[in-house]
Design brief:
The chain is 0% helix and 45% strand. The chain is mainly β. Strands 2, 4, 5, 6, 9, 10 and 11 form a seven-stranded mixed β-sheet that branches. Strands 1-3-8-7 form a four-stranded antiparallel β-sheet, with no helix packed on it. Strand 7 and strand 8 form a beta hairpin.
């Protein structure tokens, strides 16, 4: 069964860093765009970043540019999100998602989701 599994969340102090991982090994194809989203309590789910199937193209939301870095390792069927300079407002459940019908971030529509990993930023 195809599935996505996020990991790497946790409790971190403001200013700290985390690296989130998304295991897409349940999907046999690697030519799909992937992305990261988050949802804070009481807020709508927010798109953070997208990476093309080759990894050669990335897109970031303005709110995370300069602090978040998306990457992927197709040999391992993994995607990552490096988060630096964490702020309390980054507290949320972080999700990865793929669009199996699209190689590129243009027109990216997330169709398969992971279960999420909690990131809490607090002193």
């Amino acid at each position: 069964q195809s599935q996505l599994v996020e990991s790497g969340g946790g409790l971190v102090q403001p200013g700290g860093s985390l690296r989130l991982s998304c295991d897409a090994s349940g999907f046999t194809k690697d030519y799909y765009a992937m992305g990261w989203f988050r949802q804070a309590p009481g807020k709508d789910r927010e798109g953070l970043s997208c990476i093309s199937s080759s990894g050669g193209s990335t897109v970031y939301a303005d709110s995370v540019k300069g602090r978040f870095t998306i990457s992927r390792d197709n040999a391992k069927n993994m995607m990552y999100l490096q988060i630096n300079s964490l702020r309390p407002e980054d507290t949320a459940v972080y999700y990865c998602a793929i669009d199996p019908g699209n190689k590129y971030c243009s027109g990216y529509i997330p169709r398969y989701w992971g279960q999420g990993t909690q990131v809490t930023v607090s002193s």
